[in-house]
Amino acid sequence: MKKNILTFCLTGSLIISTLSVGAQTPSGKPTQEAPKSHSLTSLPDFIQPEPIQFKGEGVSLSGTLFLPKNKVGQKIPAIVMISDFYSHQDGIKVYKGQHNSYLDLAKHFVQRGFAVLRYDRRCTGESECALNATLAVAADDGLGAVSYLTERKEIDATKIFVFGHGDGSFIATGIAGHKPVAGVITTVAPGRTASKLLREWARQRVADLKMPEAEAAKYVETVDAAILRLAAGGAKPEELNIDPKDDLLFPLLKSTDYAYSWLLDDPLALYPLVRGSVLVIHGGKDRRVNPRDGNFIRDSLKTGEHKDYQTVVLPDMDYFLKENKGTPGFESDNDVSRPLDPALLKLIDEWLAKRIR
Known about the structure:
Elements: H1 3-6, H2 15-20, E1 47-55, E2 60-68, E3 76-82, E4 92-94, E5 97-99, H3 101-111, E6 115-119, H4 135-150, E7 155-165, H5 168-178, E8 183-187, H6 194-208, H7 213-232, H8 237-240, H9 256-264, E9 277-283, H10 293-303, E10 309-314, H11 330-333, H12 342-355
Parallel strand pairs: 3-6, 3-7, 7-8, 8-9, 9-10
Antiparallel strand pairs: 1-2, 2-6, 4-5
Helix pairs in contact: 4-5, 6-7, 7-9
């Protein structure tokens, strides 16, 4: 893939994950790293699981292919699922456990007759690691997953869909802007630059941690200063003097060049380039990405004169794609027992059904 197509669209890939991983901790302590392996046990009888490896951009990536057993000998449609940054192929780590949203979605899709490929993004799980990778490189990795499926004899190469969650949505749109696919599903994708979102997340963090007013004001100032320095380019980690326990800012120091692009680039730039149907889904109970971001994405698609798109806000869906009938907050974020939002499953099922006829 030509890297210059994608490098301007880095927004959201780091900090979304710090909210879904690190910033779940009320004590300010960073959470454990995402699991390095996943289980294929206790799967429904209708699933035929297969551990796989495929080539990304300069790395070998590990994943799992689920095939429906009742479709043996038939050409079947497929979905590539792309996780949020730092999450692994089963789900999203939080302070009190893990939301296995991706695994549960994969089971659901297989039951509907789809093959599903999930994979651990580079430097996560069992996949190889090469640092300083931009979102463009991550999209190249995702293209490797699509290419892998096109070479499988069981897969109908004309009916491959790409599903993205969080910053995985950017990868999904990046893939579809380069290679025709049957459709793209983005979930809780930001529609604004990270410099704006980061300030919102800082305010949410001080509320979650119940910081005293003076301490909260000082922290917000620290975030603003970090944004300005990183956005100026060429920042060195030691210049910023960020507490290693700061799970909102400290991950940015792992690659300040990456953070520079992430803070400045426009997440809407790729949507007009997408080839294939587009379904954009946000949640009314999402504390990380405001549902109004879907309006910005809709306007981008409209301006680009895209012919087949739909934007939806599901009132009871949160960032983890789970149903939340109550008030969203730290406790509900960490309740991993909640089910996937039934409205999400119904929406995607109906949307896919129209496109595989």
